[in-house]
Write a structure and sequence with these properties.
With about 140 residues, this protein is of the alpha+beta class. The protein has helices spanning about 50-65, 85-95, and strands at about 5, 20-25, 25-30, 75-80, 105-110, 120-125. The mean pLDDT is about 95.
Length: about 140
């Protein structure tokens, strides 16, 4: 089994010496995505909804480079610097995921890599297949 690096062009994480994601067989393991645009600038300073949407747009862009998509995300971990932002973050995520939603872990952390970042999201996704409702 080999792992193949996945990245967008341009890759805003290259400056930090971080791989955006790796593909192992049918599975994509993604690094945490934050509210950095493709030029490496923070989007939505002080706005949790805008930052969540940017992080998810970044996830979507990485997945689409290998023919995957948001409907193939099976596990998501969301890191918040303030749990008071959980509801707004959840509302921002709702437009990106249909039913059934991916499995998710939501945690509060003391800080992220850059002081103006409020949220970081990492995912595990499939290339082939989609999430299905629970088995009977």
């Amino acid at each position: 089994m080999d792992a193949h690096q996945i990245s967008t062009k341009p890759d805003p994480y290259a400056a930090f010496n971080i791989a955006q994601a790796y593909q192992v067989d049918n599975t994509i393991y993604m690094s945490g995505q934050v509210a950095l645009n493709f030029e490496g600038e923070i989007v939505g300073v002080g706005d949790i909804a805008a930052q969540t949407k940017q992080a998810l747009e970044n996830i979507k862009a990485v997945l689409e480079t290998v023919g995957s998509g948001m409907n193939k995300v099976v596990k998501m971990t969301t890191y918040l610097t303030d749990m008071a932002n959980a509801q707004q973050c959840s509302e921002a995520k709702s437009s990106f995921f249909g039913a059934p939603p991916p499995a998710e872990t939501l945690v509060q952390i003391s800080a992220l890599a850059l002081p103006d970042l409020l949220v970081e999201i990492d995912v595990i996704a499939m290339i082939d297949g989609v999430r299905r409702p629970s088995l009977p």
